[in-house]
Amino acid sequence: MKYNADGLVPAIAQCVETGDILMMAWMNAESLSMTFAEGRMVYFSRSRSELWRKGDTSGDRQFVREAYYDCDGDTLLFKVEQEGKGACHTGERSCFYRAFGGQ
Predict the structure, then answer these.
(1) Does 55 or 101 have the greater pLDDT score?
(2) What is the predicted pLDDT for the residue at 14?
(3) Which of 7, 27, 56, 86 could staple 31 via S-S, CB 3.0–4.6 A?
(4) Residues 6 or more apart from 17 whose CB is under 8 A from it?
């Protein structure tokens, strides 16, 4: 993996069933290792400077079903099974629910 200067790499979570993009978050080497070991998504919070396991607080957990990295090795894609209401901290299923142009 090619991590940025902060030791992070962007990770996209995609619903394995529908193909919907659920969210984008950051991972470091430790969260990536934990994700593979546990089969659950573990991210790194830039604002809190700590690891966070998706769903530990909200109950909206993500289980890894497939994992990929892009041709440059600097972006990750995880196809996940989303448990609970959704992936977004706002309560929406996806973080990408707002469209440009007033749609």
Answers:
(1) 55
(2) 98
(3) 27
(4) 81
- As a three-state string, the secondary structure of 51-102 is EEECCCCCCCCEEEEEEEECCCCCCEEEEEEECCCCCCCCCCCCCCCCCHHH
Structure tokens at 27: 């991972």
Domain coordinates of the chain in residue numbers? 9-89
Find the mean pLDDT for residues 81-99.
Answer: 93
Q: Is the pLDDT of residue 101 over 90?
A: no
Report d(CA 58, CA 60) in Å as an integer: 5
Average predicted confidence (pLDDT) for the chain: 95
